[in-house]
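Reviewers asked in the last cycle whether our approach scales beyond single polypeptides. To address this, we selected a multi-component target totalling 320 residues and predicted its structure end to end. The input consisted of the following lines:
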Amino acid sequence: MTSSRLWEPDPKLDLVLERVIDVPPDLVWAAWTKPEHISKWFTPAPWTVADCEIDLRPGGIFRTIMRSPEGKEFPNLGCYLEVVPNERLVWTDALLPGYRPSTNPFFTAVITMEPRGQGTRYVATAIHRDEAGRKQHEEMGFHQGWGTALDQLVALAKTM
Amino acid sequence: MTSSRLWEPDPKLDLVLERVIDVPPDLVWAAWTKPEHISKWFTPAPWTVADCEIDLRPGGIFRTIMRSPEGKEFPNLGCYLEVVPNERLVWTDALLPGYRPSTNPFFTAVITMEPRGQGTRYVATAIHRDEAGRKQHEEMGFHQGWGTALDQLVALAKTM
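The resulting structure, written as structure tokens, was:
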């Protein structure tokens, strides 16, 4: 049972960013799981991270506030689902911390990292409720936004 | 961090059934996690379980169909979040299997079992999005329904 895959991304509903990057999985993991790192790469410049709170365990909080160049703040509140160091990080905004169902679910994120030589095969998947959610995320600039943020993550990881 | 509790039940939002029962945790666990057992206790008679599907791992499916005495069927589709044998089982209908946000979230369930002598301290908590959800569940007969189902679980466990 546990060897079978739970799901395959559905192109109608999901968005996937996949790339091989030249920093190792443990640095990618660190970048994703420490607030002081998140604040340096998570939002494509000139957006910034105004705040970040992490309780790294299933059911724990993952909260960020993104700030636009005009100073407008966009809070995101979610809950970790899977925490497998250097391999797999899953969280969702369909649940608040402690697994309480949220009022405005948008997506679940699955980040996986596998060693590739000295680097990492990095896959970020955004899982939406419906096609409208996937389209909205695409129009918000998922591919460019997450891609630019990943460039920033790699640049940061090289300084660690 | 991991020693602190994630949350305390909120009486405005959550419903709790707590009881010490005279069957051990491993039998309670078996009753909760095998479809052939679920079908024998999960719905207070004269309701029945028309179908049950379980993939017992985080992200895996927990699907039941309850059938009313008049033959009307009520499907429930959810996703396991935590699977700790003989201790703790968590699932939610805010996510579909594979963690996809659902369209009609109602509650997350946390079932805990601790040994008490030859028996079990059993706590079932239903975590709702808002007060309306808690009230609706209460009016659906949460306390009586889950209590009667638990009586049935205990009776079944004694035959195992």
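The interface with chain A takes residues 1-2, 6-7, 13, 55-60, 81-82, 90, 92-95, 97-103, 105-108, 110, 127-130, 133 of chain B (CB under 8 Å). We regard this as preliminary and will revisit it once experimental data from Aim 1 are available.
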